[in-house]
Design goal:
alpha+beta; single chain; three-stranded antiparallel beta sheet; five-stranded antiparallel beta sheet; elongated
Length: 236
Protein backbone atom coordinates (compact mmCIF):
# COMPACT_ATOMS: atom_id res chain seq x y z
CA UNK A 1 0.00 0.00 0.00
CA UNK A 2 1.45 3.30 -1.03
CA UNK A 3 1.95 5.88 1.67
CA UNK A 4 0.31 9.25 1.30
CA UNK A 5 2.77 12.07 1.64
CA UNK A 6 1.74 15.11 3.65
CA UNK A 7 3.27 18.47 2.87
CA UNK A 8 3.94 19.79 6.34
CA UNK A 9 5.20 23.02 4.89
CA UNK A 10 1.73 23.93 3.61
CA UNK A 11 -1.23 25.09 5.66
CA UNK A 12 -3.47 22.90 3.53
CA UNK A 13 -1.88 19.79 5.02
CA UNK A 14 -3.69 20.40 8.31
CA UNK A 15 -7.14 19.91 6.71
CA UNK A 16 -8.90 16.54 6.81
CA UNK A 17 -7.91 14.28 3.98
CA UNK A 18 -10.81 13.63 1.57
CA UNK A 19 -12.35 10.18 1.56
CA UNK A 20 -11.09 8.27 -1.44
CA UNK A 21 -14.31 6.23 -1.66
CA UNK A 22 -17.24 8.33 -0.38
CA UNK A 23 -19.81 5.75 -1.57
CA UNK A 24 -18.54 2.75 0.35
CA UNK A 25 -20.86 1.01 2.81
CA UNK A 26 -20.59 2.24 6.37
CA UNK A 27 -21.92 0.72 9.59
CA UNK A 28 -25.21 2.08 10.95
CA UNK A 29 -24.65 4.27 13.99
CA UNK A 30 -27.20 5.83 16.31
CA UNK A 31 -27.21 8.36 19.09
CA UNK A 32 -27.41 5.69 21.77
CA UNK A 33 -25.26 2.95 20.31
CA UNK A 34 -22.47 2.46 17.84
CA UNK A 35 -23.67 -0.22 15.45
CA UNK A 36 -25.32 -2.61 17.91
CA UNK A 37 -28.22 -4.72 16.66
CA UNK A 38 -30.92 -3.07 18.87
CA UNK A 39 -29.68 0.38 17.91
CA UNK A 40 -29.60 -0.49 14.22
CA UNK A 41 -33.14 -1.88 14.31
CA UNK A 42 -34.40 1.20 16.10
CA UNK A 43 -32.81 3.47 13.53
CA UNK A 44 -34.17 1.42 10.64
CA UNK A 45 -37.70 1.43 12.05
CA UNK A 46 -37.60 5.13 12.72
CA UNK A 47 -36.26 6.03 9.29
CA UNK A 48 -38.64 3.71 7.45
CA UNK A 49 -41.61 5.09 9.37
CA UNK A 50 -40.60 8.59 8.37
CA UNK A 51 -40.18 7.50 4.74
CA UNK A 52 -43.61 5.86 4.69
CA UNK A 53 -45.26 8.92 6.24
CA UNK A 54 -43.46 11.26 3.87
CA UNK A 55 -44.41 9.20 0.83
CA UNK A 56 -48.00 9.00 1.96
CA UNK A 57 -48.03 12.75 2.50
CA UNK A 58 -46.66 13.32 -1.00
CA UNK A 59 -49.28 11.06 -2.55
CA UNK A 60 -52.09 12.65 -0.57
CA UNK A 61 -51.06 16.17 -1.52
CA UNK A 62 -50.24 15.45 -5.15
CA UNK A 63 -53.72 16.56 -6.24
CA UNK A 64 -54.07 19.47 -3.80
CA UNK A 65 -53.94 21.94 -6.66
CA UNK A 66 -57.11 20.51 -8.16
CA UNK A 67 -58.93 19.32 -5.04
CA UNK A 68 -59.83 21.54 -2.13
CA UNK A 69 -60.99 20.65 1.36
CA UNK A 70 -64.72 21.34 1.55
CA UNK A 71 -66.64 21.18 4.81
CA UNK A 72 -70.34 22.04 4.32
CA UNK A 73 -72.16 23.25 7.41
CA UNK A 74 -75.61 24.21 8.62
CA UNK A 75 -75.90 26.61 11.53
CA UNK A 76 -79.22 26.98 13.30
CA UNK A 77 -79.53 30.45 14.80
CA UNK A 78 -80.56 29.94 18.43
CA UNK A 79 -83.77 31.67 19.52
CA UNK A 80 -84.39 31.93 23.29
CA UNK A 81 -87.40 29.87 24.33
CA UNK A 82 -90.43 31.85 25.37
CA UNK A 83 -89.96 34.67 22.86
CA UNK A 84 -92.93 35.25 20.51
CA UNK A 85 -90.90 34.51 17.40
CA UNK A 86 -89.81 31.09 18.68
CA UNK A 87 -93.41 29.86 18.55
CA UNK A 88 -94.56 31.01 15.10
CA UNK A 89 -91.20 30.77 13.32
CA UNK A 90 -88.72 27.89 13.41
CA UNK A 91 -85.11 28.66 14.12
CA UNK A 92 -83.55 29.98 10.90
CA UNK A 93 -80.75 27.93 9.36
CA UNK A 94 -77.64 29.30 7.68
CA UNK A 95 -76.10 26.94 5.12
CA UNK A 96 -72.61 27.32 3.72
CA UNK A 97 -69.22 25.71 3.30
CA UNK A 98 -65.68 26.17 4.61
CA UNK A 99 -63.03 25.61 1.92
CA UNK A 100 -59.30 25.07 2.54
CA UNK A 101 -56.61 25.75 -0.03
CA UNK A 102 -53.01 24.51 0.43
CA UNK A 103 -50.27 27.08 0.61
CA UNK A 104 -46.58 26.77 -0.22
CA UNK A 105 -45.59 28.67 2.91
CA UNK A 106 -45.07 25.49 4.91
CA UNK A 107 -46.01 21.83 5.00
CA UNK A 108 -49.66 21.23 5.84
CA UNK A 109 -50.25 25.00 5.61
CA UNK A 110 -53.78 25.95 4.60
CA UNK A 111 -55.69 29.09 3.72
CA UNK A 112 -59.35 28.93 4.73
CA UNK A 113 -62.34 30.74 3.32
CA UNK A 114 -66.04 30.46 3.93
CA UNK A 115 -69.16 31.44 2.13
CA UNK A 116 -72.87 31.11 2.62
CA UNK A 117 -74.96 29.49 -0.07
CA UNK A 118 -77.00 32.01 -2.01
CA UNK A 119 -80.66 31.81 -1.10
CA UNK A 120 -80.02 29.70 2.00
CA UNK A 121 -81.66 32.27 4.30
CA UNK A 122 -85.22 32.84 3.14
CA UNK A 123 -87.81 35.10 4.73
CA UNK A 124 -90.81 34.17 2.60
CA UNK A 125 -92.18 31.77 5.23
CA UNK A 126 -91.78 34.02 8.26
CA UNK A 127 -94.90 34.99 10.19
CA UNK A 128 -96.03 37.74 12.51
CA UNK A 129 -96.23 35.87 15.84
CA UNK A 130 -99.30 37.90 16.89
CA UNK A 131 -101.46 37.70 13.75
CA UNK A 132 -99.85 34.54 12.33
CA UNK A 133 -99.81 36.22 8.90
CA UNK A 134 -96.94 35.72 6.49
CA UNK A 135 -94.55 38.65 6.25
CA UNK A 136 -95.07 40.88 3.25
CA UNK A 137 -94.00 44.36 2.21
CA UNK A 138 -96.43 47.01 3.40
CA UNK A 139 -94.72 50.02 1.86
CA UNK A 140 -91.46 51.22 0.31
CA UNK A 141 -90.05 54.74 0.44
CA UNK A 142 -86.72 55.94 -0.83
CA UNK A 143 -84.25 58.78 -1.02
CA UNK A 144 -81.13 59.30 -3.09
CA UNK A 145 -79.16 56.60 -1.25
CA UNK A 146 -81.55 54.17 0.43
CA UNK A 147 -84.76 52.20 0.20
CA UNK A 148 -86.88 51.96 3.36
CA UNK A 149 -88.93 48.77 3.34
CA UNK A 150 -91.67 48.41 5.96
CA UNK A 151 -92.79 44.86 6.67
CA UNK A 152 -96.47 44.49 7.52
CA UNK A 153 -97.11 43.37 11.09
CA UNK A 154 -97.87 44.46 14.63
CA UNK A 155 -94.24 45.14 15.54
CA UNK A 156 -93.31 46.50 18.97
CA UNK A 157 -90.73 45.91 21.72
CA UNK A 158 -92.95 43.05 22.92
CA UNK A 159 -93.29 41.65 19.39
CA UNK A 160 -90.07 42.38 17.48
CA UNK A 161 -89.20 41.20 13.99
CA UNK A 162 -88.52 37.44 13.90
CA UNK A 163 -85.12 35.90 13.12
CA UNK A 164 -83.04 36.13 11.05
CA UNK A 165 -83.84 39.87 10.97
CA UNK A 166 -83.56 40.14 14.76
CA UNK A 167 -82.53 37.64 17.45
CA UNK A 168 -83.13 38.53 21.09
CA UNK A 169 -80.16 37.44 23.21
CA UNK A 170 -80.12 37.75 27.01
CA UNK A 171 -77.38 40.13 28.12
CA UNK A 172 -77.04 41.77 24.70
CA UNK A 173 -78.97 45.08 24.78
CA UNK A 174 -79.46 45.43 21.03
CA UNK A 175 -79.76 41.72 20.29
CA UNK A 176 -78.28 40.25 17.12
CA UNK A 177 -79.11 41.22 13.55
CA UNK A 178 -77.38 38.58 11.38
CA UNK A 179 -78.52 39.99 8.04
CA UNK A 180 -77.07 43.49 8.49
CA UNK A 181 -74.33 44.18 5.86
CA UNK A 182 -75.66 41.37 3.65
CA UNK A 183 -76.44 41.85 -0.03
CA UNK A 184 -80.07 40.88 -0.50
CA UNK A 185 -82.15 40.31 -3.61
CA UNK A 186 -85.88 40.08 -4.25
CA UNK A 187 -85.48 36.61 -5.67
CA UNK A 188 -88.39 34.52 -4.38
CA UNK A 189 -91.38 34.44 -6.73
CA UNK A 190 -94.03 33.03 -4.39
CA UNK A 191 -94.15 31.95 -0.77
CA UNK A 192 -92.23 28.70 -0.57
CA UNK A 193 -91.65 28.82 -4.34
CA UNK A 194 -88.57 28.48 -6.49
CA UNK A 195 -85.85 31.13 -6.50
CA UNK A 196 -85.44 33.35 -9.55
CA UNK A 197 -82.41 32.62 -11.72
CA UNK A 198 -81.25 33.97 -15.07
CA UNK A 199 -83.58 31.64 -16.96
CA UNK A 200 -86.77 32.21 -14.93
CA UNK A 201 -89.65 33.45 -17.09
CA UNK A 202 -92.43 35.74 -15.86
CA UNK A 203 -95.61 33.83 -16.84
CA UNK A 204 -97.58 37.06 -17.28
CA UNK A 205 -95.17 38.68 -19.73
CA UNK A 206 -93.20 35.67 -21.01
CA UNK A 207 -90.02 37.63 -20.33
CA UNK A 208 -87.18 36.95 -17.97
CA UNK A 209 -87.42 38.38 -14.50
CA UNK A 210 -85.14 41.17 -13.31
CA UNK A 211 -84.12 41.53 -9.69
CA UNK A 212 -82.66 44.29 -7.57
CA UNK A 213 -79.62 44.04 -5.29
CA UNK A 214 -79.20 46.15 -2.17
CA UNK A 215 -77.17 46.10 1.05
CA UNK A 216 -79.12 45.83 4.29
CA UNK A 217 -77.60 48.48 6.56
CA UNK A 218 -80.13 48.74 9.42
CA UNK A 219 -83.01 46.82 10.99
CA UNK A 220 -85.57 48.40 13.31
CA UNK A 221 -87.07 45.40 15.01
CA UNK A 222 -89.74 47.48 16.78
CA UNK A 223 -91.19 49.14 13.67
CA UNK A 224 -90.44 46.53 11.02
CA UNK A 225 -88.50 48.97 8.84
CA UNK A 226 -85.48 47.67 6.91
CA UNK A 227 -82.97 50.15 5.47
CA UNK A 228 -81.33 49.10 2.22
CA UNK A 229 -78.45 50.96 0.62
CA UNK A 230 -78.90 51.12 -3.12
CA UNK A 231 -76.33 48.94 -4.85
CA UNK A 232 -77.55 49.10 -8.42
CA UNK A 233 -79.92 46.80 -10.26
CA UNK A 234 -79.31 43.68 -12.31
CA UNK A 235 -81.43 42.91 -15.36
CA UNK A 236 -81.23 39.38 -16.78
Amino acid sequence: MANTKNNFGSFSSFTKEKDKDPFRLKPITTEFSQGSVPGSLSTTNRESAWSRWRRGYELATAAFYDNDFSYPFQYQIPVPSGTPSSIANPNPIISGVFVGFPTTNKELGMHWAGWRYAGSMRSDKLKDPVTNDNLYIESITEDASNWYVKLAGSWSPANPLPPPFYVAVPGVPGGLKPLVTEILEDRVITVGGDIIDKDTIDPTTQKRYGYVQAVLTAVNQNTGILTFKKAGSVQV
